[in-house]
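Fold sample X.
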Amino acid sequence: MTTTTLDVREIPPQQRHPKIHAAFEELDAGESLTIINDHDPKPLFYEMQAEIDAFDADNYELEQRDDNEFAATFPKQ
């Protein structure tokens, strides 16, 4: 499976979700987008689950690497 990684920690908060949505939109079915964030992106998970039919919420993964680094993988179906 192909995974694209996007580190959003340096992106201003109000610009993060649009950039993430654009990157997810570019994926083909079966690919994943992993974002590196400074907090648990639970609100983004719920937003994607509610709004994006191609988001595979059942296979979403979250890894907390340290206090300020979370890796969240959003698979596309």
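Fold sample Y, listed below.
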Amino acid sequence: MAGGVSQQVVQSISHLARRTGSHLLCEGVATEQEFYFPLECGARYVQGYFF
């Protein structure tokens, strides 16, 4: 997942999570690029085959 619209959607979900006292977990991280994408969008946790 990458790109402008995808990043905006994930950032919006991350913002909603913070406002409700929750944390965002992104799954399916298999590459280094996929690792940085959720972090740039504000995710707190990531998991996947990359680890």
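Sample Y note: The longest strand covers residues 25-26.
Also: Residues 11 and 41 are 5 Å apart (CA to CA).
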